[in-house]
Every structure is written in C-alpha cells, then in structure tokens.
Amino acid sequence: MCHAFLNDSRFYQFLFCIDQDSAAEVQAGGCSCGGVLHSARYPRKPRGIRGVLDESYQTRLSFCCAVEGCRRRCTPPSVRFLGRKVYLGVIVILITALEHGLTPKRRQRLIEALDIWPQTLSRWQQWWRETFPASHCWQAERGHFILPVDCSQLPGALLGRLTGDDLQQRLCQFLSLLIPMTTHSWSGYLKVVIDPQKM
Ligand SMILES: [Zn+2]
C-alpha cells in the first residue's frame, strides 16, 4: 500500500485514544436530564483494513442515561467512525481525495486492497459533493480559511489546506474537523487536540 501508516496499528490506536478522551468528556457532562451516563457501546464491523485493527474497533463508544424513563442514548463524536459508514473516516477521506492525486492504476490497487465497491465509491463522491458542503459543520468551518476552499474539489482541496508535517497529521486534523458529523445523539462542543508527539 502506498501509505505506510494505513498498515500501522499504532495509527489506529492513536485515533482510539482520541475517541476515548472525547468519550470521557461527554460522559463527564452527563445526560441533558441531569442523569449519569453509563457505557452502552454498540458493535461495529469496519471494512477494508480489519487486519491491523484491534478489538477496540469492534465497538463504537456510546452511553445510555441511567435514569429510568429517560434512558437517552448519547454517542460521542468520533475520529474513527464517520457516522454509519462501514469504512473508517480516514479511508473515506483518503480514497476520495486521491482521485486526482494518484495514477489511476495505483488508486485502483488501493481500492482493491481495501475491498471498496464502485457503488460505495460513487456514494462517497456524492457525499463530498453534496452532503458535506451543505452541512452545518462545513458552514461553520469554511469561514476559518482566508482563501476560500474550492468545494468542487473536496475533500482533496481541504486536505491540502490543513496544517501538519505529513499526510497522516493532516488526515487527523481533517478527522477532528468532521466530528460534528459523526453523531446525531450528542450536539455539544468538543475540541479535539492532535498531539503529533503521541502519534
Ligand atoms: Zn437522561
């Protein structure tokens, strides 16, 4: 594979640690009813890179209110799982961004290695073209860029504008920017800090 970190289990453990920190913050905040949040993880089966993922990737961190009669579910934002997509967020960004950056042959090899169906790929392209530009998340973020990001070239145009020493760091910045789109059952504000020292 052309990007070594994709095959490095430490990269995925790093993302898991970020998710754990986010989850701890959400849990500490409690339920909107004032109740305590109990762990209620749900199963996930991420596709494509299973070989390097440990068992922490078999579940999504989530909580349930302990108060009888409330029992509200509360799923913290994630830098690993992009909503209900079966591929990890990092793959959904990277493969679509590489559309213009790799030779068709190399990109095809990566798509085959990750076992991505053509229909899945065109759904992602549509998501980046339509869903993401219209989202609250992007509407809030786009103003932070002094030079406007070309929405017809997402996600590559945005990936190229984020800070980081290498692709891996910029992908992490991208994932942390996307977190408001990764949950519908929690809407607070959470700041993800990417510490390259821990990578
Ligand atoms: Zn509650």
Give a quick rundown of the structure.
By secondary structure, this protein is mainly α.
Topology of helices and strands:
Blueprint: H1 9-29, E1 37-39, E2 42-43, E3 59-60, E4 63-65, E5 73-74, H2 89-97, H3 104-113, H4 118-134, H5 136-141, H6 156-159, H7 167-178
Antiparallel strand pairs: 1-4, 2-3, 4-5
Helix pairs in contact: 2-7
The protein binds zinc ion.
How many angstroms does the end-to-end distance come to? Answer: 20 Å
Major sheet: 3 strands, antiparallel
Q: What structural class do helix, strand and pairing data support?
A: mainly alpha
Q: Roughly how much helix do the residues carry, as a percent range?
A: 25-40%
Q: Which regions contain 5 or more consecutive residues with pLDDT less than 50? A: none
Mean pLDDT: 92
Say which molecules are bound, naming each kind only once: zinc ion
Q: How many strand elements?
A: 5
**So what's the overall shape?**
globular
Strand content: 5-15%
Following the backbone from N to C, one meets helices and strands in this order, namely HEEEEEHHHHHH
- Number of helical stretches of at least 4 residues: 7
